[in-house]
Amino acid sequence: MIVGLLPGYAKEVELPAVVVSKTIEGIEINFPVGISASRNDPAQPVAVALTIDLSDFVAKVNTLIGAAWTKRHIDLDGKLTHNGTLLSIESPALRAKVHFHVRPGFVPSSNGSVVAYFVPTVADNRIALTGRITEFNISNDITRHAAEALNLDDLVRDKLGALLNEALSAPGAGLPLPPAVQALGVALSTASFVSVGGKPSLVVEGTLPAVAGLLLNL
Description:
The protein is an alpha+beta fold. The protein contains five helices and nine strands; from the N terminus they run E-E-E-H-E-E-E-E-H-H-H-E-E-H. The strands form two sheets. A five-stranded antiparallel beta sheet has the order 1-2-3-9-8. A four-stranded antiparallel beta sheet has the order 4-5-6-7.
């Protein structure tokens, strides 16, 4: 009988967790990262799953957006004031609601908000977020039309998306694998935002060549 075809073969290992840090606009964000490797057949590639805990990022995102608001020209030269940002998981997407106060200058000022959903995708073995706006709320209709003329909703979505991509590029840049295993090459396949044990998380899955199983005791 071929060993690779033995019935019931299944192994999984948990690698030591690490913490990846990223500093943006002077704010340090910590991403605890866990990784597991498994396979059901020693002749097949090794499946890997990376779980990135986003709790610290979610807790600090309001401060981060506030720090970046003027420096990254989200404020429209003073026309737009940031009043708070909330992130939540609605799997497989990350939901962002940005509150603001807008003063177009020639119409009444007004409070408002933008709701956008960001979905992670894997392209060229990297994780990238694609955002879409689902709500654009401004209480004054005249001000809303003026804000639309300024493309305010697209501006907030694009700037927020850039910040999210920058932050998540740190833990998503490479799997915390032993160097000898990492050198074999990881092929990423899927990514999704989920809640793991009540914590907002990004889960990334991929595969390693079958030979990696020998290095991981699989």
